[in-house]
Design a protein that fits this description.
Strand order of the largest sheet: 1-10-9-6-2-3-5
Number of strands: 10
Oligomer: single chain
Number of helices: 7
Radius of gyration: 17 Å
Shape: globular
Number of domains: 1
CATH architecture: 3-Layer(aba) Sandwich
Strand content: 15-25%
Largest sheet: 7 strands, parallel
CATH class: Alpha Beta
Length: about 250
Amino acid sequence: MKDIRTLPDKRAIGNEAAALGIAAIKAAIARDGEATIIVATGASQFEALEALVAAEGIDWSKVTAFHLDEYVDLPISHPASFRRYLQERFVGPLGGKVRFVPVNGEEDAAAEAARLGALIKGRRIAVCFAGIGENCHIAFNDPPADFETEEPYIVVALDEACRQQQFGEGWFPTLDAVPSHAISMSVRQIMKSELIILSVSDTRKAQAVRDALEGPVSPLHPASILQTHPNTVLLMDPPAASLLTRA
């Protein structure tokens, strides 16, 4: 991870993430006639998605979008459903032009992970939008994350810190209501992306940012693996950067 930028606020982060992503998408379409991207969800992505769907000059019919994760046994009607989130904030505003591959965790999670894995294997991923969790996870790869599996999507158990974050952000009425498992894109699959754009804000992410950037590369701090990725851009606000000891 060589490109680390501190920006004034979430709006600036979102605009910068979208601008970087738009350039990567356009370049992939020009090169290959199509682009495969990975979109993310959660509070860190509101502004980036808003700016992305407002972009001009992208033929979205040539774009296939996967997403990082989804809860197991959570219906799409639930406000916390990531499929619902992306339908409302990404697919819908684009008029359905983008080819969206949703993660469906409502039935057989292992079979769904295998289905998605078959669809994404061999694809050239132009850009992956992502964030970092309070426990330093990427997607739902909570610590200790599996750095070895080659499966593109896996079924994972969510740790207490992850579930507490989802409750704390207001997605669920109680901690007990937060699902215990999810389908997640694996670490190795994320690392295959040509460009990874991380959007991170708020003081509550500061320790995770420090662990990701200044600690050793370790499954105990999953996002630290991005230190080894050649083209990751980390966009953060001053509160998220507040615990860094290196300029």
